[in-house]
Fold:
Amino acid sequence: MAEKFVSETNLKFLIHDVFDVGSLTRYPYYGDHNDEVFDMVIDTALKVGEDLLHPYFEEMDRRQPELLDGRVKVHPHVKTIMREFGAGGWIGADFPYEAGGQQLPLTIMLLSEFIFDAANYSAAVYASLTSGAAGLIESFGTEEMKETYLPLMMSGEWQGTMALTEPQAGSSLADTVTSAEPTDEGYYKLRGQKIFISAADHDGVENIIHLLLAKIKGAPAGVRGISLFVVPRERITGDGSLEFNDVHSAGIYHKMGYRGSPIVQLSLGEENDCRGWLVGEPNRGLAYMFQMMNGARIGVGLGATGIASAAYYASLQYSKERQQGRRLSNKDPESPQVRLIEHSDIRRMLLFQRAVVEGSLSLLVQCAYYHDMERLTEGEEKEKYALLLDLLTPVAKSYPAEMGILSVSAGLQCLGGYGYCEEFPLEQNYRDMRIHPIHEGTTGIQGMDLLGRKMVMKDGKAGELYLREVTALIDEALTVDSLAKYARSLEDALELLQTVTAKLMDVAANKGRDYFLADATVYLEFFGIIAIAWQWLKQALVAQKALDEGSAPEKSDFYLGKLAVCAYFFGYELPKISGLATVLTEAEGLTVEMTETLFDD
Amino acid sequence: MAEKFVSETNLKFLIHDVFDVGSLTRYPYYGDHNDEVFDMVIDTALKVGEDLLHPYFEEMDRRQPELLDGRVKVHPHVKTIMREFGAGGWIGADFPYEAGGQQLPLTIMLLSEFIFDAANYSAAVYASLTSGAAGLIESFGTEEMKETYLPLMMSGEWQGTMALTEPQAGSSLADTVTSAEPTDEGYYKLRGQKIFISAADHDGVENIIHLLLAKIKGAPAGVRGISLFVVPRERITGDGSLEFNDVHSAGIYHKMGYRGSPIVQLSLGEENDCRGWLVGEPNRGLAYMFQMMNGARIGVGLGATGIASAAYYASLQYSKERQQGRRLSNKDPESPQVRLIEHSDIRRMLLFQRAVVEGSLSLLVQCAYYHDMERLTEGEEKEKYALLLDLLTPVAKSYPAEMGILSVSAGLQCLGGYGYCEEFPLEQNYRDMRIHPIHEGTTGIQGMDLLGRKMVMKDGKAGELYLREVTALIDEALTVDSLAKYARSLEDALELLQTVTAKLMDVAANKGRDYFLADATVYLEFFGIIAIAWQWLKQALVAQKALDEGSAPEKSDFYLGKLAVCAYFFGYELPKISGLATVLTEAEGLTVEMTETLFDD
Structure:
């Protein structure tokens, strides 16, 4: 098992040098914190990752959860993890003090979760889901709900979930049919099926609190009739004891990877005794759920980046140790072999991985930073950050998810045959990674969200704000000699983005939505590469300045490494956008117009 | 489990319409065969795939081979498979009559193997490895060897292997150290370790015949000192009985996929009693082994294509059945849901898969066709086919292996969460596929083979012959109105290929081999896309002509489908070459010049 799974240096580079998270503490809300506190949080998270999570990485995969007599049994270490996370204050660490949180910037909480994901993704999910579910109650629940649920969720005694998907609906939430019938007792009676619900039942906690979408009888059709409910597995009786709430575990999925977390099928109200409590107003459930969903989408990008980070360090270590072949220019078979890392092709695969991992992480921190700034500001500024976060969420979910697959695959490839075997972590990283383009909205759905919603909302204001952000960085980088060529490349890329987007808006106007969004997934890929180029230029600028100032000579290899990866990204990855732009501007409605019979033979 | 794993229509389209394999029967060597015979072989292979192999696809994955008391136990069905393959004449079916074969064109044998690979890749490997090993004995062995080994290998009673890799050498065959000491008895005493040897021990056969590379004591260093030996696990004594030959199974690999085949570590000569018999001349072993290796590389491309084919049909079936969401232009949530295949994004993923599968298969048949023509012709013509086959082998291995990963991933994505679960075959396809960029020479090695050897051998003659082949097709397609635009795109691509290649030859001349080959893997990808575009234009031309002639109206959807996939390939895949050309012409030696310390932090 590889020792290293994240770079502490890089985390602190992002926190202090690139995003200056310490500057948030000038606002009273974060006024109790400072740079030292943030470092301490990260140091503690690293220790948790190393001691509590990483040692169980392989074992939790091999001993996967099982459904026995209607209850899901998980690895016994899950209970320890949840309690330790609760005791350490990791669940809901970004909540306000009055809700029991530590009022940590999301930026810092996100980087802590990144560490946990890299250490053992399946193990980290329990707590992050609980944070998300508790967050919904904290934002939209009644005082009574907060008192009932938050303390025990945040202590890790109770698990939280988000329960959306149904058998007949899949990704199509408009087709939700789980029903909620009002009663005079203040609760609703729920009945229906939910599938693919993460951590929806397990014996590592005493109760499971589902934040669940259902339709109140008589509600409008489609997404406008969806409401949000709190549905505990065990409801709390008058005397405080727990009583089974008619939430049955109907099945468990046996998955290729991500096996340390149970994914469960639920059956609600089989005995007509499943009670749910409405959160917020009726029929506004989807809007509320989007708070958790957006967080979960960022969380998926983060999980993907974490897995890719662990795979990168495992392949880097192997490449530094394993002797294999000779330099291409060396024809002497009696000379000693060199290590893999001395081969250009291996270096290319390592650079690719680092480009994906550190580029993705930087974009994710950017999103968290926008979230924090949205919380701290008001009026137009607040709207700006909200729009930027909205726009970038599908990108920050999908670029890491899709490119993470290729990144881990490159890591596996560095090990040759050993990469395919269970004695190294790469094959598990490869299996674990593949869930990410699927859950919390497939890549196809993210593409439609980006192009069909985010780029057009408020007359394209989010896109304009984004252009301004990137342009500001370009202008700064143009003043630095060694980076000017990258700045010009990014300038060209941004122009291409505008051209392509304008072309697609024409398609929307002239040919309608089916044509407009036919290649939204390709647009997402195109947009994502440019966004990551932006983050690389941002990092390179900071690194170049640090080198020029000579303030931290012990880190000069790290800074030079950042410049090398930036060169890699602009040299090897950014050029992909030209082919994608061709697809997007010259597609002729092939997938819209073809008839299904053409797939027959 | 999905029913369909290959398209019979497509196989017959390739055999009769695209490659006119029947025309080979004008040569006396294949004179006993005709189109009906070829159809019968394919029909029989389909039946074998359906009845003998596919039903065990999942089970052989779940009950993987184990090493128990020094012997490898495999699924009991392996024994049946080997005997049935032997009885059916599938092992060495392309061998001459006098060697016990059926003198089948490789083109037909390859398509039969494709069916077996698609049905159950792990199960198909036993026989194809035995064919390859028997082929080496047939080509280079003594009469005595042929009499001793071929009948029992071709009857499926004995297993054949290729044993190259060693612990300290990995991909670097120059560092082979397994030693062979001559004796006066006509055999050599072998001693050494071999790792990652497929089917190197199992209880489905009575003996294992290793075709194994070793160094005779005192041989020159490097690949020029490698010899080829036959090393049976059980040697044949004077009275015909079998006697253990000191070939120990030292370990078995637990792999992510491809689990139905045992991959074994061998220890030879622990008791100084392992006997091997020299094949051909001393120190020429690698040249001989390349016959099997080249076949095995084509076999890897074929296996990858087969797995991708099975995944494509599983995802196509699901997409035709599963209801999910509505057309993007339909905002009415009360209208019925549509099936997945009605969504453009799903169609794009289906077209992508079909483009990869049928494009790869066409290129593989092209290679087999060159092989057959090489066998049938003499002099300059023979050389032409040999060079074309040599040139395209690394492409036919790597394009399917690398793109097959993405193709299966797209298939899995069509199923959403179900694609990630064990109840559908996609997750196993995904795991099985990942071996292909690794075994029989990694993609990196194929890249160096293509650019560093094949494109430069005989002053670039192979590349010139290839240009002529593609140009001939372009000229023909230019005369067909509906295809002229694709012909012009391919013309441009070919010009770009020449520009990029010329640029790299300059780099070779001016900066040496390290710079020349630094991005050989990228060159391989670039070259591969153009080669597949060539095969798609070739297929489209045949389909368009068939439509114009109206000779088979019942197949018009199939032909129109071919044109749609061709349009997809030229619209979505070929544009990728512009970005790759940028990388190849503007790379500045980043991976050659950077120091390893830049990976530190």
Q: What stands out?
A: The first strand of chain B starts at residue 66 and ends at 68. Residues 32 and 229 of chain B are 35 Å apart (CA to CA). Residues 285-321 of chain B form the longest helix (37 residues).
